[in-house]
Structures are given as structure tokens and as C-alpha cells.
Amino acid sequence: VGRIVVVVGALDVDRARVLLMQHGVRNVTAVVPGGAHRQDSVFAGLSHLGEAPVAVVHDGARPLVPPDVVTAVIQAAAEAGAASAGLPVRETVKLVDGVDARQTLDRDRLWVAHTPQAFRTALLREAHHRAKAEGFYGTDDAVLVERLGYAVRMVEDSPRNLKVTVPADLDLAEAYAGQRQMVRTGIGYDAHRLALGRLLRVGGVEIPWPRGLAGHSDADVLAHAIMDALLGAAGLGDLGRHFPPGDPAFRGADSIELLRRVTAMAAGAGWRVVHVDSTVLAEAPRLAPYIPQMQERLAAALGVDCSAVNIKATTTEGMGAIGRGEGIAAHAVATLINVGQ
């Protein structure tokens, strides 16, 4: 593709130029306002195209076109003069009068036309000038060329190249795009001793108990493990790097607020939290009654639904420091997807 002409609504020209620059789209030689009809917009784009052996027309409503389809359509147009992406009809097609089917058409000869469509540039210009002179408006550019007596070679498209026209189409397009999203997983761990004179806070919830967890902040092991997992998944180091244990700014800090900050840091790096799974290891107290509250507090800080935060509590059956009641530990796994910066 040597040069690109982008056609948008008259009020969107400046915004389109900014977006194209921000996303580093190259080879755009002009951004021009379209017309009242699709055909008028294509005509406006053609007038700014200049000399080119083949002109390609593609609808912005088809954002997921595979590059190999574009290449195949261009090659077909270079050989045959005119080509269109499309899909053979695989369902039974009825000719309907009102709501009554009158005839079943031969689907073996039917295709659904898509874009991109490509043509020898001189041929497409001739077709548009003829249509304009005769006041004819077609639903695509291929029909204008067909009116001149030329055949349009069909190139089988990908089903992913859907046209976004109603909200349900957008949902499907987002689902297709999501399949290409990068997924990362991070693992977090934290442990603190139990000490007299401290509040016991786990997952942002205060739990009545004679001893609490000792630490520079509120020592919420579950929130800390989750933060460490988020930082790991986002490639942002570990908890101590961002919140040094000796820093007076974090003395007695609320770990839920720190979790909000870590979530924002991950978002700033282009990552969104999808799911967190965690396990708290404590011989006592019994944590199960508090888990729903923990899920609510953590989910709010993470910006996800409660169903995306899973918390399990278990003991070590009396083994080790945790089993002797000397402290509490937590493991966490965070799943993130990239959403761009």
C-alpha cells in the first residue's frame, strides 16, 4: 500500500488526524470530509488519491480485516481489473414478499460482498463518474463497475472481517479482538508475625483477635500478596521496590489504599486486572466468616466484580511457624490482560 486517504465525517477531520498521528499510522496522504452517502465519500477519497495502478476501498466499520485478505484482493484486482472480498452463502436463502417466502434461491451462486474491494484506478473513477452523471447510487463500489459491463472477481474473506453496524456486532468484534489480547500471570507471597498490641487486618477487614500482624504498614498479608502478584504480572518489580519498608510515608499505611495505587500503576503500564486467586494460611483465627467482606473490599480496590476475587483459607495442620500460631502467610495469583496505554 503506497498511500492512504482517510475519509471521515466533516466534523471528525481534525480528530481523525490527531488519532492517526497518535497511533503512528503511516502513508496517510490526506484526511478528507466525506459526503451525504457512502458513494459520495468514496468519490471524495478518489479525488485525493492521485495516480495509482490499483485503488482499494475499505469500510472503517470492518476493523478486523486480516492483512492477507487485503493482499489477495489487491492481487486479484491487478489481474482481473476488479475484485471484492466476500463469503459464499452457506445458509438457505429465500426471496420474500412481505413476510411470505415466494422462492428459494440457488445459494451455490450467491456470495455476500464485503470490503476491501479493489479496482484498477482508472476503471473505478470511470464507474463513479458514470454513476454520478446518471444519478445512480449503489450499495458498494463493485456494483458501479458491474454497470459498465465488467465482472468483479470474488476473493473468499475471513468470517472475522465482520461489519460493525449494531451493538451486538460490537460485542462480537470485541470478543474477536480479545482473542488476540496478551494475558499475563503474576505470583505473590507475603508473611507477617503475629504480635500483641496490633490490629489484625486481612483482606482489608479487621478481625477481632488478641494479636495482630506486625509490620511497617498495617501488615495486611493478603493485600500485600495480591499487590506483589499484580506487580509481577505487569512487570513492575515487587512491593518493596515501590513501598520500601523503612519509608516513613508508609508507616501504618492502609494496604487497601496501597492496592488501589498498585492497580493504577498496572493500568498505567497498559494492564487490567481480570482475576485474582489467593490462599491465606493461618492456624487461627478462623477466617471463613470474613471472606465475603474481604472479597468486597479487595474487588473495589482492584476495580473488578467480587466474582473475580477468589479467597481460600486453610491451616498448615500444626506444622511450622504458621502451625504454631506465630504468624499468617498468603499466596496470590493475579491474571491481567493488556489494554494499551
Automatic annotation (TrEMBL):
CDD domains in alphabetical order: CDP-ME_synthetase, MECDP_synthase
Signal sequence, start to end: none
EC number: 4.6.1.12
Reaction(s) this enzyme catalyzes, per UniProt: 4-CDP-2-C-methyl-D-erythritol 2-phosphate = 2-C-methyl-D-erythritol 2,4-cyclic diphosphate + CMP
MF GO annotations: 2-C-methyl-D-erythritol 2,4-cyclodiphosphate synthase activity; cytidylyltransferase activity; metal ion binding
Pathway recorded for this protein: Isoprenoid biosynthesis; isopentenyl diphosphate biosynthesis via DXP pathway; isopentenyl diphosphate from 1-deoxy-D-xylulose 5-phosphate: step 4/6
UniProt keyword annotations, A-Z: Isoprene biosynthesis, Lyase, Metal-binding, Multifunctional enzyme, Nucleotidyltransferase, Transferase
Keyword Glycoprotein: no
Residue span, 2-C-methyl-D-erythritol 2,4-cyclodiphosphate synthase domain: 184-336
Cofactor: a divalent metal cation
Enzyme class: lyase
Record GO biological process: isopentenyl diphosphate biosynthetic process, methylerythritol 4-phosphate pathway; terpenoid biosynthetic process
InterPro entries the record matches: IspD/TarI, MECDP_synthase, MECDP_synthase_CS, MECDP_synthase_sf, Nucleotide-diphossugar_trans
Family: Belongs to the IspF family.
Name this protein carries in UniProt: 2-C-methyl-D-erythritol 2,4-cyclodiphosphate synthase
Annotated source species: Candidatus Segetimicrobium genomatis
Phylogenetic lineage: Bacteria, Bacillati, Candidatus Sysuimicrobiota, Candidatus Sysuimicrobiia, Candidatus Sysuimicrobiales
